[in-house]
Amino acid sequence: MTTFPAELILDYSAPVPRYTSYPTAPNFTDAVNSQNVSSWMSALPADEAVSLYIHVPFCDRLCWFCGCHTQHVKRYDPVRRYLDSLYREIALVSDTIGRRQLVRQLHLGGGSPSLLRPQDLRRLRSTLDAAFEIEPDAEISLEFDPTDMIAEDVESFCAFGVTRASLGVQDFDARVQSAINRPQSFAKTREIIDALRHGGVESVNIDALYGLPFQTDDTVRRTIEQVVSLSPDRVALFGYAHVPWIKRHQTMIDEASLPGALSRFRQSRIAAAALQRSGYAAIGIDHFAKPADALCVALSKGRLRRNFQGYTADPCKTLIGLGTSSISQFAQGYAQNVKTVQAYDRTLEDGRLPIERGATISARDRATASAIEQLMCGFALDATRLRQDHGAHADGVLAKAAMIAHRDEDGLFEAVETGFRVTETGRPFVRTLASRLDDYLKQRPARFSAAV
Question: Which band of pLDDT confidence, cut at 50, 70 and 90, is reported for residue 309?
Fold first, then answer.
């Protein structure tokens, strides 16, 4: 395992955006509204497939580490009422587009969409089928919380059409689980994964975290060993984002129990090395996949992309977000839905798209976004490709990249014949390197999670 100087880790682990979009979400404003998004939707090409994301903002238990837009519910009634609004939004989006747009990928996230009951899953699927043309071989992925379901529940999700299941594990250590209010046994997790596979789900992803309270090198190592024993097709290895100024429930976590920057970095390296020794290929900064997985294929063919779900092989240019807080991406820009259920219900009752804010994308933004995505996905920036795709707008971005390489004294980023590359030493810090291309970062004050 490569040794990194402590000073380097501390210098490059400062908080920066995750770059799942550019411009990033803190730069969204109310200048983008429902009228803008209506025109973007109606301009979609008839023959272009899109992706859909559906947000279910409820959990039957609030995990203290969670950074998602969600709320704890003790009864199912609020979920059912929310679904009624969601059905209205689905129909409104389809009417705005003016046809049943082709859908290539569908992702349900949360919150915890696995708490949806069979009859509601059936109605949601029929509503989607009435509004969109979902391809027969579309990838349909759903985030599962193994603790809010039993194996018998899996049948209804398989009937919905789920092809990829994503399960949160975080850490299997009992003390860590207690500190984040997430009790989840290895046996229960294995039971749900086995049931999903038996039901025909083709691919399983597991989310694991480092940087959690009371985590140590040993607990991380043991958790990864247990994760590998479940033979997931993918593993997403995220650093815990401690942002109590945004997510107030994170104040339940004692900050004194969190590992420091150096320990956190070491945990990430231990977990990554263990996954690679077990045959998983590293994908970007935080994903790992079996060699035959679509992520590995996309990486080898230069088609790997990055969006709000992280690394993806999704080829669609348009992502339509449905539900509270969800973010859409169009050729013209980004749009985020209102974040509260009350505002969501009210806006849809008025017959309007529930858009709260967003950002239009300039030609310079597109060039910068492409450069950042190249760095985040392949740790290199191809100057010829950037110029071919963005013309003269690439020049300013490449000039910035040249300045970064010229000023680099740590051996992280260098000019090469084809453009620029992130060195092996620089790869863990690529978010920080990418942030130096960001034209907006210093214009609008914002607080982010640690870079590693």
Answer: confident
